[in-house]
TrEMBL record:
InterPro entries: Ice-binding_C
Highest rank taxon of the organism: Bacteria
Protein's UniProt name: PEP-CTERM protein-sorting domain-containing protein
Organism: Alkalimonas amylolytica
Signal peptide: 1-25
Length: 275
């Protein structure tokens, strides 16, 4: 009789392990995405209330502009500063699961000392569109965004009134403040829950950035923002990143079978004690 119990228990445990292996197949290794966005034409304002911004290069996905410049042109004895958004020319890419933050785009500031009569941008709107797809090209999520971006052009006369926290208070870096991208979200495919999240990463020339709250003054109150300090007379870049992690979720049937195997083990232990 003991042999029969042992055999039954072995078959039950073996079936549980087999079903477990089938239920927890390897997670998806990567997901495709498209990304687009840019500076919204006509949304910029300038320090002198005039239209000082020049737009250029249209993003194919959003229809907005990838470049804006301001200041006094070289032909007039000055120089210009500007912003550039970069991602794959067709907005295509892939994110590997479990590989940590991966760059999906960049935001660069060409920062130069401007003539006072040239004017500079102090506000512009940023559009964004991010689409995530499964390996069969089925859409998982579409995230459209319209964010505010404020800009502070220093006059390069120390002491500076808004230095990077803990940094050099005499470098008079310029400062951007923009709303944080949509946060993390979960989605389930098969036996795995995947967590997607956006982030930021400092690139070449960047003095630093902080996550903070800010009131743009449009009646919305304080919102979550990233504040970015960029050095004078050079190009500074901040990267937009995305990451995906996976964790397994046992199916109800698998849990029930494991529970049944535990019951069988308990019954066998009791019978063995009694014998």
């Amino acid at each position: 009789m003991k042999t029969q119990h042992k055999t039954t228990l072995g078959l039950l445990a073996g079936a549980a392990c087999l079903l477990s292996a089938q239920a927890f197949a390897a997670p998806i290794s990567s997901f495709d995405f498209t990304v687009g966005g840019g500076f919204v034409g006509g949304s910029a304002t300038c320090n002198d209330a005039s239209d000082c911004v020049t737009y250029a290069n249209t993003d194919p996905l959003s229809g907005d502009f990838l470049n804006i410049t301001w200041g006094t042109p070289f032909s007039s004895g000055g120089q210009t500063s500007g912003l550039e958004i970069e991602h794959d020319p067709f907005g295509l890419g892939a994110i590997s699961v479990g590989a940590g933050p991966q760059v999906i785009g960049s935001f660069s500031h060409a920062n130069f000392v401007l003539l006072l009569d040239g004017g500079w941008m102090d506000y512009v709107q940023l559009s964004g569109i991010f689409n995530l797809f499964d390996p069969d090209s089925n859409p998982i999520v579409s995230i459209p965004q319209l964010n505010n971006l404020a800009f502070y052009e220093t006059l390069n006369t120390p002491p500076c009134d808004d230095p990077f926290p803990g940094g050099n208070a005499t470098n008079c870096d310029d400062v951007f403040t923009t709303e944080i991208l949509a946060g993390a979200f979960d989605f389930t495919i098969g036996d795995y829950i995947y967590t997607f999240s956006f982030g930021f990463e400092a690139g070449p020339g960047l003095t630093g950035f902080t996550i903070d709250t800010w009131d743009f003054g449009f009646g919305d109150g304080p919102v979550d923002v990233v504040r970015i300090w960029t050095r004078e007379n050079g190009v500074s870049t901040i990267y937009t990143t995305a990451s995906i992690t996976a964790r397994s979720v046992p199916e109800p049937g698998t849990l029930a079978l494991f529970g049944l195997s535990l019951v069988g083990m308990g019954a066998y232990a009791r019978r063995r004690k009694q014998s």
